[in-house]
Each structure stands twice: as C-alpha cells, then as structure tokens.
C-alpha cells in the first residue's frame, strides 16, 4: 500500500507505476534499483 500512496503523491498512476516496475524488475541492475522508486521513476519508453 505504501508504494501505491507514494506513486500517487508523486503524481503517477499507481497501476502504471506498479506494472512498469514489476515488468522491469527481473532485468534491472541492482546498482540502479533507486531508479524504480516512485520519486525517481520515469515510465519505460
């Protein structure tokens, strides 16, 4: 629930945020995991 609220507070659609993050997570580098936090996230292009 905190990820949903954080996404909302940062002006993101929670469904789009979670869908994108969960899709990218398996191949995303551990050293760049902070890019997937709601305050740093940008949708995949």
What would you say this structure looks like, in words?
- The protein is 42% helix and 0% strand.
- The chain has one domain.
- Helix 1 (2-9) packs across helix 2.
- 7% of the residues are buried.
- The chain is globular.
- The mean pLDDT is 93.
- It is mainly α and 45 residues long.
N- and C-termini, Cα separation: 26 Å
Order of helices and strands: HH
Low-confidence stretches: none
Oligomer: single chain
Task: Give the mean pLDDT.
Answer: 93
Number of domains: 1
Helix content: 40-55%
Number of strands: 0
Radius of gyration, in angstroms, nearest whole number: 10 Å
Task: Give a quick account of the main beta sheet: strands, pairing sense, barrel closure.
Answer: none
Number of helices: 2
Shape: globular
What structural class do helix, strand and pairing data support?
Answer: mainly alpha
| Portion in beta strands | under 5%
Features:
45 residues, mainly alpha, globular
Give the gist of this structure.
The protein is built from two helices and no strands.
């Amino acid at each position: 629930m905190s990820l949903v609220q954080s996404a909302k507070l940062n002006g993101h659609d929670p469904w789009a945020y979670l869908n994108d993050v969960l899709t990218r997570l398996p191949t995303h580098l551990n050293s760049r995991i902070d890019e997937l936090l709601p305050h740093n996230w940008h949708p995949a292009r």
